[in-house]
Amino acid sequence: MENFIDYQKLEDRKTELHKSWNDEKKAFRYIVFEDFFEAEAAEKIIQNYPKVKQVEPTGNFEEDPNWKYTTYVNQNNKFVMTEFDNQPIIKQVFEELNSQKLLDIVQQITGIEDLQADPQLFGGGLHQSTKGAFLDVHVDFNYHPETNYHRRMNIIIYMNKDWKREYEGYLELWDMDKKIQIENVEPRFNRCVIFETNEISFHGHPHSLNTPEGQSRKSIAAYYYTKTRPENEIASDHNTVYVNVEGMKGSVKNIKTGVRAFLERINKKDK
What we know:
Helix content: 25-40%
Number of helices: 5
Radius of gyration: 18 Å
Structural class: alpha+beta
Organism: Bernardetia litoralis (strain ATCC 23117 / DSM 6794 / NBRC 15988 / NCIMB 1366 / Fx l1 / Sio-4)
Distance between the termini: 46 Å
InterPro entries: Pro_4_hyd_alph_FE2OG_OXY, uS12_prolyl_hydroxylase
Low-confidence stretches: 55-60
Pfam family, one: 2OG-FeII_Oxy_3
GO molecular function: peptidyl-proline dioxygenase activity
Number of strands: 13
Mean pLDDT: 91
C-alpha cells in the first residue's frame, strides 16, 4: 500500500519547521506548510471526498446519516464525518494521521513527546462547511472526554482548489491578550496547519462563507493528546470557549444563528 502523506518531504523540512514552530514572536506555536499529501494521493483523496447532498434551488440539505450536521450559536452549516468503513481512501488518510510514523515526525518538529492519537476522532474527522457557514474564534476543549488525556495539538489539512478571497473561510489565529489577529490562512488545497492546543490558542473562521452554490470548504482534522502536560499549562476541564472578534456584527450573527438552530431542533421534534 502506497503512503498518502509525503513523509520524505516532512523529513526534509524538519529543521525548518522546528525553527518556525519555536518562533518566539508568535503568541502560541503553530506551523503552516504546503504539499502535506503526495500530489497523486491528494488528487485521489479529493476525488473520494464525500459530498453533502444539497437540494436545489432552496439551498437546504438532505438528511445524510454519514454526515453530522451542526448549527448553533457559535457555529453554522458545518458537517462532520467520522465513520469510513465503506470508504477505503478516506479510511487510509486517518490511519496515516494516527500512525506512529507521523507522530514520531511531529514530535521531532514540535518537541512535544509521547503524543497519542485519537482513533475515535472526537471532534475531528472530515469537515465540510457550506455557504453561510462560520466557526467563531475559540480555544478548544482541553481533555479527551473518555481517556481524560490532555489535548495538545491540532492538525488540519485543507482540500480546497481555486479558493478565492471573497469566499471567506480563512483560518484566523488570534492573540487575545493583545486582541489582534496574528495569522490569516487561506484554506488552500493540500495545505497543512499544525498548532498547539492550550488556553491561548484562539482560532476560527468567524466570517460567513460566501461560496457559490454547490461549493464547500473541506478540511481533514485530527487531534493529538498526551497523558501529562507542563504544570503551567494545566487548566480546569472545560468545553470549547468562544470569543466575539466582530463586535456588534458578531453579536447579531450569533443571535440569528441561535434562533435558526432552535427552530431547526423544534421542527425535528415535530417530525
